Structure formats: structure tokens, C-alpha cells
Amino acid sequence: MAEPEQLVVEAERQAGAAATLDELSAVRTAMTGKRSPLVAARKALGALEPDARKQAGQALNAAKAAIDGILSTREAELSAAARAERLAAERLDLTEVTEQPASGHLHVITQTWQELEDVFAGMGYRVAEGPEIESEWYNFGALNFPLGHPARDMYDTLYVDYGEPGSTLLRTHTSPVQARVMENQAPPVYVVAPGRCFRQDTADATHMPVFHQIEGLVVDRDTSLGDLAGTIEAFTAAYFGPGFTSRLRPSYFPFTEPSAEFDIQRPDGTWLELGGCGMVHPNVLEACGIDPERWQGFAFGFGIDRLALIRFGIDDLRELWTNDLRFLRQF
Amino acid sequence: MKVLLSWLREFAPDIDGDPEHLAEDLSDLGLAVEELSHIGQGLDGIVVAEVLATRPHPDADRIHLVDVDAGGGEAIQVCCGAFNMAVGDLVPLATVGTTMPGGMEIARRKMRGQWSSGMLCSGAEIGMGEDHQGILILDQGLSVGAPLTEALGICPDVLFDLEVNPNRPDAMSVMGVARDLAARLGVPFAVTAPQVEETGQPAAERAAVSIAAPDFCRRFGIRVLDNLPSGASPRWMANRLLAVGQRPINAVVDLSNYVMFELGQPNHTYDLDLVPGGELGVRMARPGEQLITLDGTARTLSTYDGVIVNRDDEAIGLAGVMGGASTEISADTRSVLLEAAWWDPMTIARTARRLGLRSEASARFERGADPEIIPMALDRFAELAAALGATTAPGRIDATGNRPEPITVRVRSQRVNSILGTDLGTDEMTGLLAPIGFACETGGDGQDFNVSIPSWRLDSATEIDVIEEVGRLHGYSNIKRTVPVTEQAGALTPHQQDRRRIRALLTGMGISEAMPLPFLAPGDLARAGLGDDGITVTNPLVAEESIMRTSLRPGLLKAVAYNAARRTTGVSLFEIGRINPGGGGDLPDEREHLAVILAGQESTAATTLWRRLARHLAVTNPGVVNGSVDGLHPGRSGQVLADGQPVGALGEIDPQVLDAYEIDERVAWLEVDLGALLAADRGLAPYRAPSRYPSSDIDLAFTVPDEVAADEVAATIAQAGGELLASVALFDVFRSEQLGEGRRSLAYALRFEASDRTLNDAEVAQARQSCIDAVTTTHNATLRSN
Fold first, then answer.
1. pLDDT exceeds 60 at position A1
2. Which of A2, B73, B345, B517 has its CA 20 to 30 A from that of B124?
3. What is the per-residue pLDDT across A209-244, written as a single tens digit (0 to 9) for each?
4. How many CA atoms lie within 13 A of B89 on its CB side?
5. Long-range own/partner contacts, residues A6-14 (CB < 8 A, 24 or more apart)
6. Euclidean distance between CA atoms A170 and A138, whole angstroms
7. Distance between CA B76 and CA B358 in Å, rounded?
């Protein structure tokens, strides 16, 4: 039977020779397993005299502890080496990527539209919508454009073949939504109505037969032109940012009186003509079933498309409609 | 509407100051200045030159060589790009060293090897008219070599180009603009009555008018003039007309235009010798009545048109729109009948529009001219004509139809302040109104007042009209700005919020939002495999924009084809937009659709997308039912269900349709009626705490006939698995010869669990068996593995 010290030496030799964790495991079995010399020696202890047994037992225990130590040290070494090897083997160039990112983009009109909705929602407005194919009544009649009124010519209206000739059209502005809201909702009213509009126009860099507008309508007890001017100013600051201001200039629209154009002044002093606005004409309130002696209101409207062009530095309206992915994915 | 500062000053001499500030004042009054130009300036160095000879440039086609005499008696060679001059013509020459109004310096230089010592000028280049093309040919008789300003009597002036709104008939005249501006500036405004010397036989004995259409013709004034000049108008008048964009013609026509621009009253002259008895009448045209107008065109009239007739009831003029050829003045005309009338604005608008004859005159009548200015307009014409040697017959003829009643409006000062948001006193309001001719009479309480609307403001008839005037003259920029406060919480509707969530989901999946034109060309729908029955636009400018869409498909197919043609394939796009499916009530049905097009992908991509969308929106019981859909691949299409109701379709575009669009990749498609989808039953299932006990996972593979949908098998498993089945998911599909024709293997992963215990083997085995039995008996399927 080998001496315990020899067993330790042998274990040290074998553990050192083990190149892998599996080999080390075999060494462990050989050196400390059921059939190992160590176990055999322990079994043989029973045959010794008590004194000798004690001495031999202590020697064996010491050898066992030493062998365990050797094995676990070696195990740690091999584990670390295995890990290092694996990590080295798994090294990747993180720019070595063939898959293109799937990036979807909201259309610039939608982005602008949503920003506008958010600004007005922040000011307490709800968002209303209406049909794109509209009746002559809502597009003109309810808005104080009598039949045959020359002001109707200001709008190059597209009509559709539906119902009586001239009765149904592609709405020329979002203003019909004003009338629809007022008919369906008792004041006070605070709404904006973004939407798609149509005109008989030849497509070029600044015109399209289809375009988008946003309309605002407030009807309340004492709503005044001062409220309108203040609201335009508050919107200007909120949407365009600090340093932008607004002004109102008298103008004419059949559905508002007094009417105004509103312009935005940029921080560099230049002006941007943005849209039209005014106090809701008493005839319009009446046409929508609201008593103009009890309620007053203002309305405003402007184009979304041009804002989108300005915001994103696009110089041709037609680009908005090509659906060229090289265009869409820039925004 | 263009106005000259010098002309405005004839009504309000104290209008003064920086032209830029005056422009701001005009804009602030609602007369938006589109352009401000300084004219008659920077013309130093431009002289009258005579064309001596012209000859081709040896090395250039687009320019030629012109020899001119600039007063020095020697020929100066100039290269010129315009060819409209002849030898002997007088032309403006910018001499060497001149700085043009645009800033260009004229130097002696070679053009293609030929010397050019100066530049011949077009009208536009020197602020006289708008002609850029030709060289301005000057009147004969000017002295060669004289400075142009001196020769033409040009004075430095300021030209405002105003945008006049339809509600400002008064601002269609120099006088009206001057009145507004003077009021704003607080300077006097005055109209000097024209001085007319009358002589000869009274007008009433030489002319007469009868009005048979008194609602159309509210007033008809006539003067008779003799000895009219036949030549050109005086230079100062021609210069003014040129500046405001009116080409001078001859003295009589120019006089007529001058009076119209100055006072806003269009007028017309008849050769008195061609009007039998000097008798005119006014009536509405007869259906189909013919008239040859001044431009030589034969017009067919309708009962909506008003006409001037002669003694024999023959139409000799289209009232308010264009005169007739038969009474046109000519070089031989010695006596004229001058008409100044008031016509019904709507009738004029309709006739001018129908015949395409909109003119400076019709623009004024359409807005509503001032019926009270008629005598003055006649007299002003006579006064100006007298300076040219004409004489005026004594008296005016003044026939009236149903003249508009003078309007008086009661205005509540409290209402004015409430609408404007101002705090003006009644006297301040009346003080603002008086200078523009709105005469105010304050009532007893000092609060309300009556306003007599001036005859030149036919647009104004109600209290709100007067309130607008108060606001306009007070200045919108002087109104205190306030922001109204609402108790309402601003928010999007649930539908609008869902729309945004869908957009976020789709863009997050790498799908970009497209915006195709909503118009289609005839045949576009058929080409996309859809019924060709969209609503038609009755007056499209181009056929490509003549049909309203019934589906978003043609537009997105076009977008994919457009990109493919530019070598961008595999495009994924979506659109949310309105379509008109056909049918409807007062208005055509209009639905909001969502469509997704996935180029380079198979139909199953659309199914995955739909499931993701349905999950995102918590659609109750979303489904797909195989079946053919128009325009989609017959074997790869189906209906989309939300809570059992069809809300759309998905699949792959029919190869035939792809061919028509020249798309050569597979294209997966999903289109849903967004309104129907969002209105369908939706909502999360009641919350259940995740089980704390381990689950048991088993896989089952069946051989299933092709006609049985995988979803149906899954549904059968789900039902049979009962309470204990936590989830079932298809994870593998394959076909092989061994399985046989018409069958495939479908493998499902099942997870069983209970919330209150660990399932024992017997329970799981029983549940598993139930699922197997249900599938094999229901679907003619066999279990493949165990």
C-alpha cells in the first residue's frame, strides 16, 4: 500500500497532467473515488492497532485534504482557462452586421399634424373630424356663402357625381367641421379639426389638388377678437418656439367677421403668412342653431403641408406625395 | 389694385412719411401691400435715342446690332436682344455709366466680339409697364438726346400694389384707398367737385335712357360730349395708367380708365352717331340672343345677362361687362354718349364668369360700385376731356331703377367691445367711423348709436359689419391679447389615440407611412383587381384625378411600383386614409381604412402582422378565414375577422395585378376598415395572477388535410384542453411524400398549468388525450408522434 504522502505526490502529478476538466474529473475519481487507494487505505485502517490506526487515519485525512486542495486548485485553473478559451473563441466584430435595421417612419404630414394636435390639446382643445366628401351646405351654405356668392369663386371647388348636380363636393377647407361641431355640441366649444382638403389645382412646387388644414373653433360666452389674437400668439409660442410672434391683419372671409389674416414673425424679423381667422359670423352661429346674442366665437385655420415643408426643409410640395422611400425614410 | 402715392395725395395732400410705414398702415387696414416699388427713380443717364440702323450680329442669333443717335449726331452701336424696333423709332437708351433701377451698371463692353455702348430698355426695366420682352418704343416728337424723365414728364413716385378683399368695393379706387389711409393717419381727406363748363344743345334733347330691368340697373347716368380728341392722352395721364398696369390706348379710352381707377366707377362711351336718336334701353337678354362685343366676338346670351339696347331693341352692349362693336368709338367719332351706371353685382359676376370676360370694370361692379358717385364720375370725365378740347352738353341724364335704400344700422357699444375685446367709449367708436364716412348719431343713453352706411360700402349692412370697421380702424394690433380659459381637458378621442398607437406599432415594425394621392385614373381600380365603380369627380383638371378610391390598394401598389422602378425593392408601407366604398345617404359612404403593403413578403407575413395588430389593440377573438378576395392571390387570401365580424382582407396581391403594375416580387397585403376594427369588441381579458406552480409542456404533431386551417386545429385543441391549457402555439409545419398528397404535419406546443397546484402526470395525460381525440375526430387528422 502506498504511503499517503506518495498519494499526494501522485495526485499532484496527475492533476497537473490533466488538460481538461473532464480529465481532471477522471483524476478525481481515481484519486478520491470508491476504488481509489485512499479509500482502500481507509478501509484497511480497521485492521490496525488503535494507536497505529489513529496515526494512520490522521495521515490519511491530511492526505485527503491535500489532494482535495490540489484538485480544486487545478479545477479553478482549468475552468478559468476554459472560460478564457471560450470567450476568445466567441469574439465578435460588433459592426459585422448584415441585417439592416427595420426603421419605419411616420409621414412628415402626420408628424406635423400630430404636433399641432398636441399643442392644441395642451391648450384644452378636443380634436374633431368630418367627412372629406362634403355637402354644398356644410362647405358653403352654413358658412354664410349664399348660392351664387362671388366668394365661392375664391375656392376652386371639385364636385363629385353624387346626388343633385353641385350638391356634393370635395371639401375645400376644414371649415365645414365647424358647422358640424356646432350642430352637435352645445357651447362652450373648444375644438381643432385637422383634415384633408381638395381644390381644383394643378400640381406644382407650391400647389396640390389635395392638401391638409387645421381649423380651430372656440364658442363661449364672451369670446372676443382679443381672445383670438391671444390664442394665435399662444399657439405661435408653443409651436414655433421662443422669439416667434404673430400679428393679425384685416381680411375677408364670409364665415367670420371681423376677419383677419395672421402672420408669424420669425426671430430674424421676416414674416410668414400662415392662415385666416376671425370672429364666427352671427349668420354661421344661427345656421348651426346657436344664438349669437348669447354666444360668441372665433375660428382660425391654416395649412399643415406648408408647415411640414418649412419644418423639414423640403422645397417642393409634390415630394410629399411620391412615396419614394428615399424621401420617407429621411424623417 | 395698384395705387400711386402722388395720386392718393390728390385726395389727401398730407399723406406723408416713409413709404414702408405707409405700406404697413395700408396692410394694417386690410389693404395688404403685396409689393411696394419706387418708380421714376434711377433713370438718370437714360435718354431718348433714335434708331438709325439695325443689322445682324455676325456671331450671334439671339442679339442684333442697333445703331442709335443719342443726340450727339453720331451712331452709337448697341447689342440688343429685342427685335421690335424699326429705323426711325425713338427708344430709351441707358448710356454708358448709368446705374439701372435694378442696380446694374451699364458699361461699354464686347458681346460676342461686338462693342455695345449702352443698353436699350424695356418698359419693365424702367418702371413703365410690365413688358419685359420688347424695347419700349417712345412716342414720336420727343427730342432726341433729352433725358427720359424730362421728355416723358416722369416724376419719382411710390407704387403700392394692394390686395383688395371682396368686401371692400371702395378700395377699388384711388379715392377709396386715400380715404382709408387718411383716416388712419388722421389727416384731412377731401374730394374736389369737378368743374364742368357746359355748352350747346342740352343732353336731354340728344339722349335718353329707359330701364326695363330696374333690379338689374339701379341707376344709369349719361353725359353727352362733343369734339373729343382723337389722339393720344396727355403724357401725365398715360404715365399714371402705365404705372398702375393699364396700357394707354387713346385719349377717350384712357379718360374712361382714368376715371374708373380714380373714382371706382367704370364707364363706357358710345359713338353718339351710331346710337339712333341717342336712345338707350336696359333689359335682360333673351335666351339665345346674339351680340358682337368690342373684341369682335359673337356672344350668345342668356336671360341672366343684362344688355343695353338701342331704340330698335337691338342689343348694343353687354351691360357692365363689355361694350358692343356696333357703337364703338373710332377716329371719326366726334360726339359720344358717356354712360356711368350701377349694375346688380351678382348678375355681373355671373355673366363675367360665364363668358370668361372678367375685367377691371366687372371686378368693380361685382363688389358693388357706389351708386352715388355716378354724377361725379360723369363730371370728372367731362372735366378731364375739356382739358383736351372736348365740350360738354348741358345737363346729365339720370335714370333710376330700384335704387338701394340707404342703410342705417343700430350699433350697441357694449356689443362692439364684447366682440373686439376692447374698452372703447362710444365717442371713440364714432370718432373712428366718421373719417371713413360712417356717419354716427348717438342715441339718448350715449351707449348705442345709429350709423348711416355710406353708399360706397354696399358690403356693410349689419351691426357686425360696423364692428369690423371699428376694429379695423382701431387697429387689430392695438387690441389687448387674452387667452380664453376652458374647463375642458384637451384630449384626443379614443379612436384618435388608437390611430396613433397603430402608427407607432407599424413604424416600430419597420413599416413607413405612405401618402398616395386619393385620386385615381379611370381603370386604376380594375387594374388593381377591384370593381371599377369609384365615385367620379365631375370637374377634374386631369383624368388621373377623376375617380375617388374604393380601396387603398391602387395607391400603395403604385407606391411599391414607383420604388421598384428606382431599384428599391422589399418596401414595406402603410396608409391610413379615407375611401368611398359606394352607397351612402345624404353623402357617399366614407370609411377610414388601414392598409399595409409588404413587398417581397408572402401572405403569412400579413397574417403575422394582423395578429400583432389585433393583439396590440386587444381585439376580442381576432381571426383569419381563408377564401378568395378580389385582386388577391386566390390561394393566398382571406378575410380578417374581429370578434367574428369581417373587418378586412389579407393575403398576397394577385400575380396578374402585380404584372399590371410591373412589380416582380411577391407582395403581402392587409387592408382593414379601421372604423369597424376599432368599434369591434375589444378589451383585455380579466387579470389572472401568474401561477406559482410549474407547468407541463408537451408537443403534439398531427397529419392534417390541407383544407383544414391550422387555426381551426389550434381552436379545437384550445377547446379540448379546457381550463388547464395555458397556451397552444403552432411551431412547425412540413409536407413530405410520406405524409401524402393533400396533407401536412402541424406541430403544436401545448402548456398545461393550474393556478393552485402542480398538475400530476395523470391529469396532464388525460388533458393531452382529450386534445388528441378532439383533433383526430374533428379534422380527419392523425397523431404523428407521441
1. no
2. B73
3. 999 999 999 999 999 999 999 999 999 999 999 999
4. 18
5. A7/A31, A7/A37, A7/A38, A7/A41, A7/A63, A7/A67, A8/A63, A8/A66, A8/A67, A8/A70, A11/A66, A11/A67, A11/A70, A11/A71, A12/A70
6. 11
7. 45
Put simply, the chain B residues between 362 and 391 with a CB less than 8 A from any chain A CB are: 366
Which residues are paired to B725 by β-bridges?
B752
Contacting residues of B for A136, CB less than 8 Å apart: none
Residues in chain B: 786
Kindly calculate the radius of gyration of chain B based on its CA atoms and give it in whole angstroms.
Answer: 41
Handedness of CA A132, A137, A139, A142 (dihedral sign): negative
Sheet strand arrangement including B306-309: B208-211, B279-284, B306-309, B315-318, B322-323
A124 with B488: Cβ contact below 8 A: yes
Dihedral over Cα of B522, B527, B532, B534: its sign: negative
Residues in chain B predicted with pLDDT less than 70, given as ranges, are: 785-786
As beta bridge partners, residue B315 has: B309
Q: Give pLDDT, residue B322.
A: 92
B455-478 pLDDT, tens per residue? Answer: 999 889 999 999 999 999 999 999
Instruction: Supply φ then ψ for residue A40, to 5 degrees.
Output: -60, -40
Give the SS3 label for residue A296: strand
Give residue B554's Cα distance to chain centre: 27
Residue B685 touches chain A, beta carbons under 8 Å: no
Q: Chain A contact for B581, CB < 8 A?
A: no
Give the residue extent of every domain in chain A.
4-89, 108-328
Burial classification of residue B630, based on how many CB atoms lie within 10 Å of its CB (0-12 exposed, 13-18 middle, 19 or more buried)? middle
Give just the sign of the alpha carbon dihedral B209, B213, B219, B225: negative
Going by C-alpha positions, the residue among B233, B238, B240, B243 that lies closest to residue B124 is: B243
Q: Which residues of B touch A163 (CB under 8 A)?
A: 586
CA distances from B570 to B507, B510, B633 (A): 15, 11, 18
- Residue B762 is which amino acid? A
CB contact under 8 A, A224 and B548: no
Q: Could A252 and B166 be called an inter-chain contact, meaning their C-beta atoms sit closer than 8 Å?
A: yes
Cα–Cα dist B23/B29, whole Å:
10
* A251 Cα to chain B: minimum distance (Å): 5
Closest alpha carbon to B163 in B279, B11, B31, B282: B31
Cell of B236: 401725365
Are the CB atoms for B266 and B364 separated by under 8 Å?
Answer: yes
Q: Show the cell assigned to B184.
A: 388712419
Asked whether the ipTM of the predicted complex exceeds the cut of 0.90, the reply is: no
Residue type, B59: D
Interface of B with A in 11-50 (CB under 8 A): 27-30, 32
CA distances from residue A72 to A22, A38, A69 in whole angstroms, order as listed? 13, 17, 5
If contacts are CB pairs under 8 Å, which of residues 247-286 in chain A contact chain B?
A: 247-252, 257-261, 279, 281-282
Distance of CA A190 to the CA centre of its chain: 27
CB contact under 8 A, A133 and B588: yes
Q: Which long-range contacts (CB under 8 A, 24 or more apart) does B403-408 make?
A: B403/B218, B403/B219, B403/B371, B404/B218, B404/B371, B404/B455, B404/B458, B406/B452, B406/B453, B406/B455, B407/B452, B407/B453, B407/B460, B407/B461, B408/B450, B408/B451, B408/B452, B408/B453
CATH code of the region A108-328: 3.30.930.10
Task: Give the residue from chain B lying closest to A234, CA to CA.
Answer: B483
Question: With contact defined as beta carbons under 8 Å apart, do A324 and A330 qualify?
Answer: no
Q: Which three cell numbers stand for residue B21?
A: 410705414
Q: What is the pTM of this model?
A: 0.85
Q: Please provide the size of chain A in residues.
A: 331
Which residue, chain included where needed, has cell 370609411?
Answer: B591
Contact A226 B420 (CB under 8 A): yes
Q: Tell which B residues from 115 to 174 touch A, by Cβ distance under 8 Å.
A: 165-168
